Amino acid sequence: MIACTDGVFRLSTAHTSYWFQTTAFGHLEHIYYGARLSDSDAIEPLLFKRTAEVGASVLYDPADNLYCLDVLPLEWSTTGKGDFRHAPMEGKMPDGSFVCDLTYVSHSITADAAPMRALPCAQGEAETLCVVLQDALLQIELRLYYTVFAACDVICRRAVLQNDNEAALSLRSLMSFMLDLPDENYSLLTLSGGWIKEAHRNDAPLPYGLFVSESTTGASSNRRNSAFALYKPGCTEEYGSVYGFNLIYSGNHYAGIERGEGGLVRVMQGISPHCFDWTLHHGDSFETPQAVLTFSSEGFNGMRSHLHDFVLSHILPEAWRDRERPVLYNNWEACFFQFSQGRLLSLAKQAKRLGAELFVLDDGWFGARNSDKAGLGDYNVNKKKLPHGLDALAKRINRLGIAFGLWLEPEMCNPDSDLYRAHPEYAVQIPGRTPALGRNQLVLDLTSASVRDYIVTSVRGVLQSANITYVKWDMNRHISDMYGRGLENQGEFYHRYILGLYDVLRRIFGDRPDILLESCASGGDRFDLGMLCFSPQIWASDDTDPVERLKIQGGLSYFYPPSVMGAHVSLAPHQQTLRQTPLNTRFCVSCFGALGYELDLRYLTRAEKAEIKKQIEFYKRHRRTLQFGRFRVLDGRKPHQAHWQVTAREGTEVIAGFFQSGTGAAQNGDVLPLTDLDESARYRVETRPQPLFISGFGALVNHILPVRLHPNGFLLRTANKLYTLPDCVERYAGTGKLLMQGIRLNTPFMGTNYTADTRLLGDYGANLYVITKE
User: Fold this and answer.
1) What pTM did the predictor assign?
2) What is the C-alpha to C-alpha distance for residues 689 and 728, in angstroms, rounded to an integer?
3) CA nearest neighbour of 271 among 292, 287, 293
4) Which residues are catalytic?
């Protein structure tokens, strides 16, 4: 709900309130953002008090010696009128100066989400406030949009700057929002990393001065995700106050958090000013991406709940908001570039027998694509590998009862490609300068209409050529040598590239809503809300080691729901870490996401295939809960353990994950923490049965055998292929209130004695527990 009375704006969601007002001089003064307050309450107790002149200050107007912009909590600020804090806008104004003064002119309230022109944005039931600010002297206007999604406790903000002056305005930065909060000794949570190490959580007390989190790679980046959080001291997964922020944008982004001496913290977010310069001629306007804000008084899990609901209800393509994701098999790690139609059909048959619903043909099906050094940019099918083309292959796979999907990398080309030989001007490169290569490839210039038309025509042609129900859209390098041949102002390149990408995605998939698009960029290099407006899921990382995935998927879970995370089971030892992990653990982590398998099925034993079939059956039974339930992370009692939980929306079942990243000698008992249960209802708890592979015990099996056998001998190697041992299965029952005290689990292995009731997790072990409401 949005209301305005006597210059006071009150925005309300189910559990939060956001208040600000216009001052006597027309600036927007922030009052409050936090837990829900009564709209009938007076604002005076929360107002910033101006009862003494601030020393060494610059007064805004000599008529009021107490009015200084530098100390006011504001909704927006400008340069040159006395506020010396970090400004959300910078540019060379039409009069040649860098000074402007934007003050209130009018406002309007509409019962919609205020859709944007070119950028993706949140959709669905909402209410929007538009506040118009103006500098009458310069004849420029700024419109601040506040879109309230009440049910999920999210407020989206964005800005539109319009130049009505006859002279041009050179814009160097324009943030999507700015907000001044009271300084409450916040700590900052960010997600950072790199290739195969995406989205690792980083925490630090907010220092005095300006903290910047920024991407300059041309994409939202695996180095700094656009999402971040500010939390008060004592905040945990279940308790405490936290603000969450994100940006619906896939390019260079910027977040600035400034802690000043005046008891305020300034937060802003938007497009990175790195190499940004945008010219606004008379009548031109510039719209920023939409920023996402939420507040939770129930810890990080409360923030998760708000942002997960927001993504599922207002960001994802409508056709996939409540649609279960298929279990896929991807052939990449089984084949890389070397395959034939017969090899693919053999893999598809085996994948179908295991329970997969979708077969994905990855890189290598087109042009001279026998390595990563050639072929990108071409779309002719490689007839040596697929002599009958994609259509024949798709039909053969469909007849097996499994859907067919395809990998593409449309934003790139190799210098060794038919496309580049015919149109070298399509690639991003500076005339006269040798371009830098990444993964032996160049970026195509999406600022060019001709390039976009080529991509759209080519990809649509491929999609029309066969029954393709899934597309993996990859982007495997950062952007360098940024230069658009058709641009007058190269400072517009980065943003126009992203606008071009969104245009291409709309034109290809706008009339194909049922194709499941999975975005990828060397893993999670472009994991953002902008891409999620087009692709219902994103490949979270090229790292499929479950121990690493606990950090990656756990980090992403603060801001994104599990159903949007592509998560695959692969062979071990893992290509990325050389770590040997149990097959069960690989599944336990991957099932908290859009499940897939990416491994060479020839190397699986009969016992492993039997286990994978059971894993997929389990996932399908509980898929709706795992993909769309309420996801929680619970604080562990041991540093080497992690606890995840997802609760069905109807409250009928809970899946709890217990993960161990290491073990030690003589471990004491473990506890399974639970939350989100109905206190008065009764529940049954049971461990998901899982096998123990004989090879994992080595020579230790001789402790339980009547005769001694060589651990690498024929008999035990044969037994390992065919048979497994059962792990401990525990069963409990009780009320929700009882179980939420924490279930004391059976004793783990402590160096001696083994019974059927001993939990044998070891290093990198995991268990799933199914909690069913009676």
Assistant:
1) 0.97
2) 8
3) 287
4) 474, 542
